[in-house]
Amino acid sequence: MKNLFAAFRGYLTDLIAAWDSFWFTPVDPAVLSAIRVVTGALLLWTHLIWTLDLGAFFGPEGWVAPEIAAATHVGRMTIDIFPWLGGGWLLGLFHAFSLIVFFLLMIGWASRVVAVLAFVLAVMYATHVTPGAFFGLDKINCLLAMYTLLGPCGARYSLDRLLRRRRGENADPPASVSANIALRLLQLHLCVVYLFSGLGKLQGVRWWDGTATWFAVANTEYRSLDFTWLANHLWLVDLLTHATVFWELFYCVIVWPRLARPWVLLTAVGMHGFIGLGMGMPEFALAMLVANAAFLSPELVRGLLDPVANRVAGLLGGGGST
């Protein structure tokens, strides 16, 4: 019995140590900083497009009547400020402020403050549900913005770091526990997203009979590149359909082992690349790949981005990496 209790105590100690290591090991904030750059760019682009017809999307005389918009918010925690803004200069001023915030997030100025503002603003736009304009991209934008605010997202690849160097301060960011927590939460959230996406597909007959991929690429409303040649290779259509369901269902398991992770992420590139190119959703594909980047190592990200950052810093007279 004594040996049993000793073995259990050892197992419990190892479990607690593994938990602490998973959540609280300091990591280089390079990955979170890189995610911030692309998240800011996606938010800026998404909301800049809405500028083309801002009143139709968010004005009181737009596509959705105020009473219908209000009804969609019953029983939900929302931050719908647009009914109070009206459709005139006040709406335009608020929108211009939002675009500036998203741009500042992208370039990394006052990053910790701007990240909070960007998340709140993104949620404000997303909760003003406009039929025909609220897609997965808006949800993933909010997801990414939420996790950038939890850690030092401006530690690298930012104007903040460049300014610190110009002031002669030590701009080399230390390893961060909060950066690790932000990335871990993003990783787990992504696992949940894919799991429920796979479970949702199991409710559709076409995912069972292997034809879902064909109906997706044959839809002329979304098509950007012509993949109808797949009609001559029905075995490939069937394989892509079932492989997609399998990958989404088991992503939450197979992405964690180090040997399997590169293959899982390469599959993500292929799948979301296919969605972006074949179904006219490049921004959504990019957003999902940015979320998958949470599984990349800081060494890989720095190897890819530091040379570019050093070049930009040199052009701006920063004397080092941004």
Automatic annotation (TrEMBL):
InterPro entries: HTTM-like, Sporulation_signal_mat. Its main location: membrane. GO terms for cellular component: endomembrane system. The keyword Methyltransferase does not apply. The keyword Transmembrane applies. The chain crosses the membrane at residues 81-106, 113-134, 234-256, 263-296. It is a multi-pass membrane protein. Residues 24-300 form the HTTM-like domain. It is found in: Endomembrane system. Keywords: Membrane, Transmembrane, Transmembrane helix. PANTHER family: HTTM DOMAIN-CONTAINING PROTEIN, SPORULATION-DELAYING PROTEIN SDPB. This is Vitamin K-dependent gamma-carboxylase. It comes from Botrimarina hoheduenensis.
